[in-house]
Design goal:
mainly alpha, 0% strand, globular
Length: 299
């Protein structure tokens, strides 16, 4: 008699926690998108479309997550079949996270590695790993939809999910490590401001490492706790971490006061033509934001 409530809690509580964090991070994402469109009006059209695409996909993913939450904790409350059914999670978690969000964010950072380093091998390796995790995420979602039972998913999608989450974490670590290495290498030339590079490096380390850590935690819970939904807490949250990390890096182009009277944009710090051109290429809009507002305290 005492085992039933524990088993129910192992199925419902992680899902509920995942819904909470997903909605909280969606609110943070909305603020970041608002700040981007207010602060970087001169960015190129493709850059704005890129951010709008991320926002659209996240809105759609949030709607699907809410529908599943209502199905389990509202209309289907007390129904064992509703609790066991996968519902729309096959689409909102592996498919949308792996294809439209993590893959898109990783390609964004891989492009920056290519621009900054002018190298091909490391960006190509990161791209290959990202494509592999994307394909694995697609197949994981398809298999989850076919199985349509949480009790069977872990045993029947073991290999697909391992490749998806393991590949996602590996790509994040390659991207973060590569950007840190090349930025510090460029910093050693003396052509760039230390403050600018420290800020970007910190954001890359924090965002890339956090996404990789959550992906590894998701994989560990998936593999280590069979017949429970512990893995759903980080899984439902993962897409919002990728999107918020991406927007945080884009919005980091806003800089604080460097002294009591002047504020300079990060992409206008250098007078050296070659380095200035490279930094312009790294900006999503391609051009320095001359009139960018001062950085707010929460960025």
């Amino acid at each position: 008699m005492d085992q039933s409530p524990i088993l129910i809690g192992e199925l419902t509580v992680p899902m509920l926690i995942g819904h909470f964090f997903n909605l909280i991070l969606f609110g943070v994402l909305c603020v970041q998108v608002f700040i981007y469109f207010q602060a970087f009006l001169k960015d190129r059209l493709w850059s704005k479309c890129y951010v709008a695409w991320i926002c659209f996909i996240e809105i759609l993913q949030t709607i699907l997550v809410v529908i599943d939450g209502i199905r389990v904790f509202g209309n289907g409350w007390g129904d064992a079949h509703a609790l066991a059914d996968v519902g729309l999670i096959w689409l909102s978690v592996p498919a949308m996270t792996g294809i439209s969000i993590s893959f898109t964010a990783q390609i964004f950072f891989i492009w920056r590695i290519r621009v900054l380093s002018q190298a091909r091998m490391i960006p190509a390796a990161a791209f290959l790993v990202s494509v592999v995790q994307c394909v694995a995420a697609i197949w994981t979602g398809i298999r989850a939809h076919q199985i349509d039972n949480f009790a069977l998913i872990q045993s029947q999608t073991f290999s697909h999910t391992s490749v998806w989450l393991g590949g996602s974490a590996t790509a994040d670590l390659i991207i973060a490590g590569s950007l840190v290495f090349y930025m510090r290498k460029s910093q050693s030339t003396g052509l760039a401001s230390n403050a600018m590079y420290v800020k970007i490096i910190r954001l890359i380390i924090e965002s890339g490492s956090l996404c990789a850590l959550v992906a590894v935690a998701d994989l560990g819970l998936f593999l280590g706790y069979q017949h429970t939904n512990y893995h759903l807490a980080p899984a439902i949250t993962l897409s919002k971490l990728y999107s918020n990390s991406l927007l945080a890096v884009l919005n980091s182009r806003r800089t604080p006061l460097l002294n009591s009277t002047d504020s300079i944009n990060t992409f206008s710090l250098l007078d050296t033509p070659s380095m200035d051109a490279r930094l312009r290429d790294m900006a999503p809009g391609g051009a320095p934001q001359r009139n960018a507002p001062k950085r707010s305290s929460w960025v």
